[in-house]
Specification:
Layout lengths: L6 E9 L6 E8 L1 E6 L2 E7 L6 E4 L2 H10 L2 E9 L16 E7 L1
Antiparallel strand pairs: 1-6, 2-5, 2-7, 3-4, 3-6
Length: 102
């Protein structure tokens, strides 16, 4: 069961200013699913790397340019629990703690 406190959704509307080839996330805590115009692109996972990128497929890039409107990027970040002991207790932040580029 996912409760409202265990996920965070980041959303951004952007007008087309050329092709978008990938979306990079920096400081992901804990797992982020990336969507572009409601199309799932991939996942960035804290367990492998805090930073990662997902690639936008060419068919989706072409569709966005042809539409000549904006597109919506949504990032669903899931909280996989907290550290409950040791020195990481005070710094185990959740969400995207740094930057998103596209």
């Amino acid at each position: 069961t996912i409760t409202s406190t265990s996920v965070r959704v980041y959303s951004c509307m952007r007008w087309v200013e050329g092709d978008v080839y990938n979306i990079s996330l920096y400081g992901v805590h804990d797992r982020a699913a990336v969507y572009l115009d409601n199309v799932y692109l991939g996942t960035v996972n804290r367990m492998t790397f805090l930073n990662g990128s997902v690639t936008v497929p060419s068919y989706l890039r072409e569709r966005l340019v042809a539409m000549d409107t904006g597109y919506t990027i949504r990032i669903l970040v899931e909280n996989l629990g907290r550290v409950n002991h040791g020195s990481y207790m005070a710094v185990d932040r959740k969400g995207i703690t740094m930057l998103v580029t596209f």
